[in-house]
Amino acid sequence: MPAILFLVVRGVTVGEVRGATVLDGELDQLLRSDEDTRRRWLDDRQPVPPEANWWLHLLLVVDGRGDRQPAERPAWAQLKIWLLGQAGRRSALDQVEVAERTAYYVAQMRSAGMAASSLPSADTVVRACLDAIPVDIDHVAVLTDRRDLYALERQEMIDSRHARHLLNAAERHQDDLSDPALADRLHAWLAIKPRLV
Length: 197
Prior knowledge:
By secondary structure, the protein is mainly alpha-helical. Helices cover 57% and strands 7% of the residues. It folds into two domains: 1-93, no CATH class; 116-197.
């Protein structure tokens, strides 16, 4: 009987992956491959059309390998970040999810003591989060009273919620920003975060 892996995103079971086992040898080869070889590996294995569950399973397996091989953890972290980018480029995960997952993962790796040279800079991570917010700061839905929620259109609520989630992820990197303009942009968003949906 094939293994079944249930995937949960933001506390909700989104689906399952049956028999999507990636062999350890394949991952070791992928880890040591150049970018073109990695792309070809993905081209040969990813489902068509792209399936988020396949990508989430792959990311989970890569995480596990990094946990089991602490000496090679920086290389596994770089592979995971690269795979997140590929999932976005190949439309398996949207820009919001890629930016949010990357920001949390980089913060987790920094907290674990991984060298900054192995990870994207705080500026890169925060810029990706802010760029992924689907609406401009002047047009995002904000609430002064929770009763205002009923006056919002569904898409306004979704966009405001995405902004909140992305800001929660970006905020973890604010102390390490080096670009003053980016820090100001993040600060402006954080000032309205309590009023986002």
